[in-house]
Write a structure and sequence with these properties.
Blueprint (H helix, E strand, L loop, with lengths): L4 E4 L3 H12 L4 E4 L2 H10 L1 E4 L4 E4 L2 E3 L10 E4 L6 H9 L7 E4 L6 H9 L4 E13 L2 E13 L4 H13 L4 E3 L3 H22 L3 H5 L2 H20 L6 H14 L6 H7 L10 H11 L4 H13 L6
Parallel strand pairs: 1-2, 1-6, 2-5, 3-9, 6-7, 7-8, 9-10
Antiparallel strand pairs: 3-4, 8-9
């Protein structure tokens, strides 16, 4: 169904999904940083995954004009750049093109709708990946997606089938808000603690103190979600949190990776979002607030 797919902001997430789509024969272009683009164009994109290692040939550019003619746009930028990147891409998109937000956080589609006035499909993306050097994607776990929302069933089905056929299970859920919040909570429990301690997911979940922090963070997040009308099962969420570490024990969070590179993180859209929404709705969130503040403070340090 899709003749021209473009991934905007092809870092770890965009390059992983874009690379697998290209490997499956889907016509796709990655829009990424110049060094990553040069490496891909010169040597191909090397996918170092948990199941295979392979160099894939895929189009790459640093020019947003590549969005012209696309019928499907995968928005994979950091949440700090959500609106600005969506605005730039929208200026190039065909009127009938579709955009999917494949980002952390739960409010990207709402922000785009409020600022730019168009609807974006949201996706809960469950993957652990990094770009250790230009032209290389290191995949350490998972890879599935969940999509949904008030869009034609035929469109959602076509998107799900495209990803699934390329080796990335994609399901359609009528409970996407709960799925998005579940992913947000997983990020809130692991990302900041990993970033502040440089401990992998497996190390964190084996430490009683870190696990206690996780459970408190979960409780705060669920209370905020309830205040916003999102009902979650605490026992189910805590079980998922405890199983995540053993399922990808070597993983280091995207927040850790950003700090290691001296970049700003997405912490405002993770623990910071919980803290802000807690304050707005009168829900105490002391540990999420502390995690947010500590990561923001750590951002002021240059990497060693």
């Amino acid at each position: 169904m899709f003749k021209n797919v473009v991934a905007v902001g092809a870092g770890a997430v965009g390059s992983y999904y874009g690379g697998l789509l290209a490997r499956a024969g889907v016509p796709i272009t990655l829009i990424a940083r110049p060094a990553h683009v040069d490496a891909i164009n010169n040597n191909g994109l090397f996918l170092d995954t948990t199941t295979f290692k392979e160099t894939v040939r895929v189009k790459a550019t640093a020019d947003m004009s590549a969005v012209k003619g696309a019928d499907l746009v995968l928005l994979c930028v950091k949440t700090l750049d959500t609106v600005s990147a969506a605005r730039e891409a929208k200026a190039q998109m065909n009127t009938d093109a579709v955009m999917i937000s494949m980002q952390n956080g739960v409010d990207n589609a709402d922000r785009i709708k409020e600022e730019l006035g168009f609807d974006v499909i949201s996706a809960a993306v469950y993957v652990a990946a990094s770009v250790p050097q230009p032209g290389v994607v290191k995949h350490t776990g998972r890879g599935e997606l969940v999509i949904g929302g008030d869009f034609p069933e035929s469109l959602l089905k076509a998107i799900a089938e495209m990803f699934t056929a390329a080796g990335m299970p994609c399901t359609i859920s009528a409970a996407l808000p709960q799925q998005m919040w579940t992913k947000l909570i997983m990020n809130c429990t692991y990302n900041a603690q990993c970033a502040l301690t440089a401990c992998s997911y497996g190390t964190l979940v084996s430490d009683p103190g870190a696990v206690q922090n996780m459970m408190i963070i979960v409780d705060e997040c669920i209370a905020v979600a309830k205040a916003k009308g999102i009902i979650l099962d605490p026992a189910d969420i805590k079980d998922r949190v405890l199983k995540l570490g053993p399922s990808m024990p070597a993983t280091l969070s995207s927040t850790y990776q950003d700090l290691a590179k001296g970049k700003l993180t997405e912490i405002d859209s993770l623990n910071g979002y919980i803290a802000a929404q807690g304050q707005r709705h009168g829900v105490p969130t002391p540990l999420n607030t502390a995690m947010h503040a500590l990561v923001r403070l750590r951002e002021t340090r240059k990497p060693a």
